[in-house]
Design goal:
The protein is mainly alpha-helical. It has one domain. It contains 3 helices and no strands. The chain starts with a helix and ends with a helix.
C-alpha cells in the first residue's frame, strides 16, 4: 500500500510539474519563466524521489511476503518494469529541464549585456 501511495503521489506531482513547465514555456518574461522552471524542477525531483522509494520498497515488502507464502516461485509483473521506465524518463525530464533553463538564462544575460553596452555608447 505504501508503494501504491508513493506512485500516486509521484503521478500527481508530475502532473503539477508538467503544468508549471507549460506555464514557463508560455511566459515571455525570462524572470517568470525561470521561476516556473525552478518550481517544476523541484517538484519533479520530489516526484522522482517518491517513485524511487516506491520501487525500492516494493521488492523489500515482496520478499517479506515470500517467507509467509507457500509458493516457491514469485515474479514481478510488467508494471514494475513500467515503474522503472517512468523513473528513468522522469530523471531525463529533470535533466533536460535543467539544461533548457540554463540556456535561456545565458541567452537573456548575453542579450541584456549587449543591449546595455549599446545604450551606454549613445
Amino acid at each position: 500500500m505504501a508503494s501504491a501511495a508513493l506512485c500516486v503521489i509521484c503521478l500527481l506531482l508530475d502532473v503539477f510539474a508538467t503544468f508549471m513547465t507549460g506555464l514557463g514555456l508560455s511566459s515571455n518574461d525570462p524572470a517568470v519563466k525561470t521561476r516556473y522552471y525552478r518550481i517544476a524542477v523541484w517538484v519533479m525531483t520530489v516526484a522522482l524521489i517518491a517513485i524511487l522509494i516506491a520501487l525500492i520498497l516494493y521488492p523489500v515488502f515482496f520478499a517479506q511476503e515470500l517467507e509467509l507464502g507457500n509458493r516457491t516461485l514469485w515474479e514481478f509483473g510488467w508494471a514494475y518494469g513500467v515503474g522503472w521506465g517512468a523513473a528513468i524518463f522522469l530523471f531525463g525530464a529533470v535533466v533536460l529541464l535543467l539544461c533548457d533553463q540554463e540556456e535561456e538564462e545565458i541567452y537573456y544575460k548575453e542579450r541584456t549585456i549587449i543591449h546595455a553596452e549599446n545604450d551606454s555608447r549613445a
